[in-house]
Each structure stands twice: as C-alpha cells, then as structure tokens.
Amino acid sequence: MEDKKTEIYTAGKELFSTKGFKDTNVSDITKRAGVAVGTFYNYYPSKEKLFMEIYIDENARHKKYLLDTVDLAGDPLSVVKEITALNVRGMQADPILRQWFDPHVSAKLERLFREEDGLDSVDFFYDIFLDLVKRWQDEGKMRSDIDSEMIMMLFAAVINIDLHKEEIGTQYFPQLLEYMLDFLMKGLTEGAK
C-alpha cells in the first residue's frame, strides 16, 4: 500500500513541478500514478494536502541545503544575508517552492502551511540558528543585552512578513526582506561587546 502512496506522491510532485498547483487536479495525478481516483483519497483528502506534504518536504530539504552551504563561522551580517539570499533564490528556482510566490494561490498555500504546522518541519533550522545567535553573543559579535530567544523572535517577525507579501506587494517583497534583515542585523551587531 505504501507503494501506491509513493506513486501518488511522486506523480503529484512531477505535475505540481511542471503544471503548478493551480493547474494540476486529482485526475491528472491519478492518471500519472496509474491508480484510481478513489485510491488517491485513501491516502490524501485533497490535492491541497498532497501538495502541502510535498511542499513541507521540499522546504525542509532546502533549509538543510542552506545550513550545509553557508559558512556559519562568518560574521553575523554576512551569514544572515547569505542565508536569506540563498533561501529566496532557491525558493524561486524550485518549481514546488516557487508556488509560494504565485499570487493566484499563495494565500491558500500560506493558510495550509499554518494548518499543517509546516514550521515544525524546520524546527532543526531554528535550533541551529538559536545556537549560532548564542555563540555570536558569547563572542561579542551580537548584542548580549537582548535575550537570544528574543532575537530569534525578531528574526521570526521579519520572516513572517512573508505571510503578508500580498498586502505588501509581491514586487517589493524580496527587497523589503533584505532591507529589514539588514537593519535588524546592524541594530544587533553594531556596538556589540
């Protein structure tokens, strides 16, 4: 039975990657997977749930890639800028992750991501980054008068503007994120010691 679920997952990933979330339907997925429509619903209650499972997996894979790619021993501003730039570029390059920026479906995907506790899948990223902030504080590279957990919440606040990119305007979003992180990092690192 797991083979059928894997076939559905793989077919869905292929179709979402080529046709996009909006233009893929359950019938397309089941034809590609070679299973009946009813079989699809044995594993997933909707195409949205399948997509979100795929999206969450891709997002976690991408975050692991970031941690493996970026030199975390660099100065805080460089590390955060590099992670942010690689994250945005990677999300725009990956056909699954890019759906997050599609104005026709982004609000729906953001809602599903929250409902599915998508952030739980990248808890490892938070934990590693929290340790990094603590190290920077110990080394005098980041303000130590602000609790490390509060600093993480400042990052979370900036990152959560992602959930409001429609209101902000998707054309402004990547640049806005870069500016906000730049201002935040300068405030956290200038005069640290």
Question: Measured on Cα atoms, how large is the radius of gyration?
Answer: 19 Å
- Give helix % range: 55-70%
Number of H- or I-type helical stretches: 10
Indicate the proportion of strand residues.
Answer: under 5%
Shape: elongated
Q: Can you offer a commentary on this structure?
A:
- By secondary structure, the chain is mainly α.
- The model has no long low-confidence stretch (mean pLDDT 89).
- Helix content is 69%, strand content 0%.
- It is built from 10 helices and no strands.
- It is elongated and about 65 Å long.
- Helix 7 crosses helix 8 and helix 8 packs antiparallel against helix 10.
Brief description of this entry?
This protein is mainly α and 193 residues long. 69% of the residues lie in helices and 0% in strands.
Features:
mainly alpha, 69% helix
Task: Describe how the helices and strands are arranged.
Elements: H1 2-19, H2 26-33, H3 37-43, H4 47-69, H5 76-93, H6 106-115, H7 123-138, H8 148-159, H9 165-168, H10 173-189
Helix pairs in contact: 1-2, 1-4, 4-5, 5-10, 7-8, 8-10
